[in-house]
Amino acid sequence: MKDMTGTTIYLEDYTPPAYLVDEVHLTFALAPEATRVKSRIAFRPNPEAASREFFLHGEDLTLISASIDGVAVSPEITEAGLICDVPDAPFIFEAEVEIAPVKNTALEGLYMSNGMYCTQCEAEGFRKITYYPDRPDVMATFTVRVESDLPVMLSNGNPGASGPGFAEWHDPWPKPAYLFALVAGELLNHPGQFTTKSGREVELNVWVRPGDEGKCAFAMESLIKSMTWDEEVYGREYDLDIFNIVAVDDFNMGAMENKGLNIFNSSAVLASPETSTDGNFERIEAIIAHEYFHNWTGNRITCRDWFQLCLKEGLTVFRDAQFTADMRSEPVKRITDVIDLRGRQFREDNGPLAHPVRPESFVEINNFYTATVYEKGAEVIGMLKRLVGDADYAKALDLYFDRHDGQACTIEDWLKVFEDTTGRDLSQFKLWYSQAGTPRVSVSEAWEDGRLTLTFRQMTPPTPGQPQKDPRVIPIAVGLLGPNGDEVQETTLLELTQAEQSFTFTGLAARPVPSILRGFSAPVILERKTTNAERAFLLAHDTDPFNKWEAGRALARDVLLRMLNDGAAPDRAFLSALTTTLADDSLDPAFVALVLSLPSEDDLAQAQVDAGRVPDPQAIHKVREHLLDAMAEALEDQLRAAYAANQVTGPYRPDAEGAAKRALANTALMLLSRRDGGALAQAQYDVADNMTQQLAALSALVTAGSGEAALKAFEDQWRDDRLVMDKWFALQIGHAEPGDTAATVERLVAHPDFNLKNPNRFRAVFGALAMNQAGFHHDSGDGYRLMADWLIQLDALNPQTTARMCSAFQTWRRYDADRQGMIQENLHRIMMRDGLSRDTAEMVARILE
Ligand code: B3K
Ligand code: ZN
User: Fold this and answer.
1) Is 96 annotated as catalytic?
2) What does pLDDT average to over the chain?
3) CATH code at 719-849
4) What is the tens place of the pLDDT at every residue in 6-26?
5) Which of 122, 291, 550, 842 is catalytic?
6) Rounded to whole angstroms, how far apart are CA atoms 756 and 752?
7) Dihedral sign (CA 529, 480, 486, 583)
8) Ligand 1, atom nearest to 252 Cα
9) What is the topology classification, in CATH, of domain 9-293?
């Protein structure tokens, strides 16, 4: 039983562990219903601890026996763990417990997926495997013996003895229990090899179920690129003789960085041209890199406690973004990251789930693996790098690795290396870690005698538990463009530190157009009174690719809002700005595709709220569709030309260049199918030899209302491929008409391949429902009802995925009284479920608060 009391844990209550662990020996006798886990743990009193209470975490375990220094003991067992009298000196604790992996549908601890054993321990899953101080500041070396008749048995570290029925592993690097992993099954490996810069030979493997072995090559290439990049850019080398990656179908998230044995959701590893889109390839490359980079930022240097999660996650997301920018296009990566940040993190920061990058309390830590901790955590590091400069950033990182290798650290430790490297006082900067909410920065301009003065004001609205905010340090990158479009002031970094502050540029021949917050230099909402003519000017001339795109995006948003609120017609000036962009051959096609894609319906709903209006999801959907139709009509000839010019010939390669062309051609195709009823899309569908082309054609056909035959053909072709079928499920719901969305969900959950227990399939359906704003928020309330019905069912099996998906409701206060009432009713229905998990209870309570 879980601790259902919902006790809140506070950062300020941190105390060091009473006992430290030097060494752990584990023996697993695997059996689906009754796995036996024997542990032998060398404890010693922690000289820095105030208490001597010996408590080991343990949940859902059957204790068979326990002893201390070889003498049997009978500890007190609670629903959270074990308490026992122990000597005030080093001692050996041994225990044997029994667990039932086959019954573990929560996918946390040791569980089974398609006959394969695997583990997920972060954050607090190890306590479902055996009794242990399951906290990240207890680090120990692990030796593991796995016994079973399965052919492949893996754990962390380097391989030791093995023979029929057993395999031993030893991990020489002290680690917290959350990095423990075990895998056993009938697996095949795709092998690889890497020699580190100091000459260590490393055996690499990607392990998959038979049938998937042809889809591993890209993951292996990505791993080798990541290992090389981390040596070149951060000077970080790999530190074991072997690195294993395992693909598993049932997994609550993307992947997990267990030391030497990364476990991945199969969707984040398996790739082939026929089954994976360009987007999938890029995501796989990024996740492989992310987990690999954790080996230093997370594993060698870990977190003292779970409040410090952003220490490893923010930094590792920042590192993987740098990697992707280096492997692919830096501007495109930045723009897509900002779209994602605004779509997920700003949304979170703006509602009942807002919390600081370093939260100060939680009930269930799994609920804090959020866009704020990850993505805003990475933005904070980006700002720090901008403020100190690249050279000092590199020095500070070297110091961080030197000073803290092998330790469990805090944000204070992290900031101290920057203070020591640069002599800067980062106490104000630290507010980024403790204050929730997205700062609003407004800017006004004054022009006089060749001097341009920019005056900034910053304000952060209240968030739960934080009514008042102090001004933060905000790095604002600014450039100036002359009236003819030439840059008259290169990018310069302004440091806003006060609530209101002015900066003056002098010696200007004519009044320039400022380009503010270049590269999105801080995660803030910039408010600036400007005209659409100026936006179009920046879209045409800005040298900063991010702000060039941003200008087009702001223009599109303004046009849509005027259509929505004033009944305006699609704006001719906007359409002509798009014509100019499409005609500019010097632009990266991926960039052009981004300019052609409109703000999402959720983005527009938030824009309505910001303007003091109540968003109407159906009206937003209609207006956005109307503008897309108008774009298709006005740009038809150019879109046809772009479609033709961006066809990629030859065998499919998942590189950035080909992907960019396909992105533009397929954006054109989506628009063109509004003109030709899907004829071009059908032609593309019929000859497509890769999933990017096939899926884009299918989406275009469905959007054009002529997708029935292709949907059937797609299902017949791919019914045996789980990951491709996830796309088939998601696409139909994502593209369903608002009034038809709930019926589409009902039809698909009745499909024989819908499987509640598989998180990928559940997310394909209900993630797509949440994304289809007009469908989810349809006045019938059917979207809300369906979501709640299925979350209630899922909670009994998998609390983590249920709790995460509750965030679909987080924007409920935006809407009209009817919708608010219906959402509340459904949230209450979830809350009332007997035995509701702590995970979901915490999320629903926070959303309703
Ligand atoms: N560290 C894991 C996430 C664990 C989530 C636990 N609920 C993956 C990652 O961020 O790399
Ligand atoms: Zn991570």
Assistant:
1) no
2) 98
3) 1.25.50.10
4) 899 999 999 999 999 999 999
5) 291
6) 11
7) negative
8) 7
9) Immunoglobulin-like (2.60.40)
